Queue: 2 jobs
Job 1
Amino acid sequence: MCSSDLNDAGSFSYPFLGELMAKGLTVSQLQQLIDDGLRGPYLVDPKVSVTIVEYRRFFVNGEVKSPGGFPFEPGMTLRKAISLAGGFTDRASRSKFTVLSDTDEAGEPIQAELNTSIRPGDIITVEESFF
């Protein structure tokens, strides 16, 4: 059993294989990468299992009652994220939200809806309503 944390670059060190890049890979792709790396003269049929212990946090700011960072869970939507942040303030817009994803190379926030899926590391902004 080997437990490793990802560094800021999205890689980690694994015994016998050295530094492995996990960023951008699914769990099954990473599992296959490790399995292929270990397979050889010493390990004929390695059994590799990869699990995610903790996801990166996502962040909610703007017109919510308790802005801040929150633990990501699979299936997270904008509606659930706003609920975790205490819900809308009295001045919050119920229809103007943006999400900035660190995987977006342009670095531009996108307009979102309450059903929009949220990913680890996303930054959600709830805009103010003027009416």
Job 2
Amino acid sequence: MPVEARRGRPPKVDDAGVATRQRLLAAAIAACVEHGYEGVTVNDVAARAEVSAPAIYHHFGGKDELLVAAGRWALDRLRPEDGASLSAPDVVSAFLAPSFADSRCLMIELHLASRRHPQIAAMMAAWHADHAPSWRRRAAGTPAQRDAAVTTFFALLLGLCQFDSLALPATRA
């Protein structure tokens, strides 16, 4: 199937060829790791991404939307290059990889922020609702058992966000 040509102007890229949106997402993760959810500012993210603060509003509705999008982007990068689905053990292994440590920190910050900010809770609920059907289809049992399995898996991933603070040696087991 032919790929449809992109409409409009191409995304701006830096000298390394990284698009502005990706730089903003990576910068948002770094800022959240350094300052926590509440301490992140649009200006700090923009400076890290080497863009103007208004550029963030071209891509996102604001700080909240940017940080939730950064979390989604981080998890989407766990998928294999070919777009295949990962098994639960593969997701856990990728989630615990040292290269995912900053994203784990972002996930915990987002979930904590969702307890304080209803708009973040709504975005997180929508995000979970987007991902739950694919996991539900893979689970065995009755519909209630499949729902429980998905809830348990999401809770496991949230708990694994604390992995770095446990000071345990990382093993594949």
